[in-house]
């Protein structure tokens, strides 16, 4: 096989394996899981780390599908390619692009759950305590 085809296969395998690792890392960081319950900050960092791995996996899949799509487009418009051996964009390319974009979108959503070091809200003040009623309060 051509070197570019082997490279796109390797990128897709890497994207699949990274996606599986990202699923396991992100699941440990979910709020509904009992793993690492004692430290919520570490738990949220695990979710963010899973999101980063999802983004990397999505980028690997996007590079692989775009690289192969570019190869197909160049071969299609090459005048020296015989008509009966020309490829067109198939459903696998569109599924690859959709999967890559969904992986990056999901990773971005997980990265948005990053714990903040400080809040932008002012410190909460308690309500003022009312003076005890004397019984002479009229409405």
Automatic annotation (TrEMBL):
<dbReference type="InterPro" id="IPR006187">
    <property type="entry name" value="Claudin"/>
</dbReference>
<feature type="transmembrane region" description="Helical">
    <location>
        <begin position="89"/>
        <end position="112"/>
    </location>
</feature>
<keyword id="KW-0812">Transmembrane</keyword>
<dbReference type="Pfam" id="PF00822">
    <property type="entry name" value="PMP22_Claudin"/>
</dbReference>
<comment type="similarity">
    <text>Belongs to the claudin family.</text>
</comment>
<feature type="transmembrane region" description="Helical">
    <location>
        <begin position="47"/>
        <end position="69"/>
    </location>
</feature>
<dbReference type="InterPro" id="IPR004031">
    <property type="entry name" value="PMP22/EMP/MP20/Claudin"/>
</dbReference>
<keyword id="KW-1003">Cell membrane</keyword>
<feature type="transmembrane region" description="Helical">
    <location>
        <begin position="6"/>
        <end position="27"/>
    </location>
</feature>
<dbReference type="GO" id="GO:0005923">
    <property type="term" value="C:bicellular tight junction"/>
</dbReference>
<dbReference type="InterPro" id="IPR003548">
    <property type="entry name" value="Claudin1"/>
</dbReference>
<dbReference type="GO" id="GO:0005198">
    <property type="term" value="F:structural molecule activity"/>
</dbReference>
<dbReference type="GO" id="GO:0005886">
    <property type="term" value="C:plasma membrane"/>
</dbReference>
<keyword id="KW-0472">Membrane</keyword>
<protein>
    <submittedName>
        <fullName>CLD1 protein</fullName>
    </submittedName>
</protein>
<keyword id="KW-0965">Cell junction</keyword>
<feature type="region of interest" description="Disordered">
    <location>
        <begin position="119"/>
        <end position="139"/>
    </location>
</feature>
<keyword id="KW-1133">Transmembrane helix</keyword>
<keyword id="KW-0796">Tight junction</keyword>
